[in-house]
Amino acid sequence: MDGDDGKLHPIKGADVARRLFGWHYEHLVLYHSRFMAKDDGIEPSKLCLADKLGVGLTPSWLWTAQAVLSGEWYEYKRNMEAGHYGSQELNPGSPMKFHKSYKKLCEEWVKTGDTSSGIWNNNACQEGGLSND
Question: Is residue 21 in some structural domain?
Fold first, then answer.
């Protein structure tokens, strides 16, 4: 999610990964977040793409249930209404339609493998747009 909790969630996971598996895994987990990588001036880790692949593989009916129950859908909707997604082709009509359009963007990003540019690193995304986890 785009709030402070969502942006900072990799810190706990990275600490656990370091304790269990060593420093390399701390880096892998911490920098799967584009927000954390940008903040520290480095490229996102390979886990970043895998994380977005998860969005692409999640059935829309399941994502919709999770997003509505967790409140994530309402955060995305507020961000769309505030114009935080720029010109990205996201459908705000319903949680299901939104996920299908978001899923398409995630799949395209994973296909290109480019974590340094493109739709996921534009100004709209970095200023409260797409989820940074």
Answer: yes
- Most distant CA atoms of the chain, gap in Å: 44
What values do phi and psi take at 77, rounded to 5?
-60, -45
Q: What is the DSSP code (8-state) at residue 33?
A: S
Please list the helix, strand and coil fractions of the chain in percent, rounded to the nearest 5, in that order.
Answer: 70, 0, 30
Dist. CA 128–CA 124, nearest whole Å: 7
99-111: average pLDDT: 84
Helix axes 46-57, 95-112, angle to 10 degrees: 140
Residues 26-40 have a mean pLDDT of 88
Per the structure, the count of domains in the chain is 1
Domain around 20:
4-126
Mean pLDDT (whole number) for 89-102: 85
Task: Locate 39 and state its tokens.
Answer: 């903040």
Which is more confident, 11 or 129? Answer: 11
User: From CA 33, how far away is CA 11, in angstroms rounded?
Assistant: 10
State the pLDDT at residue 2.
Answer: 57
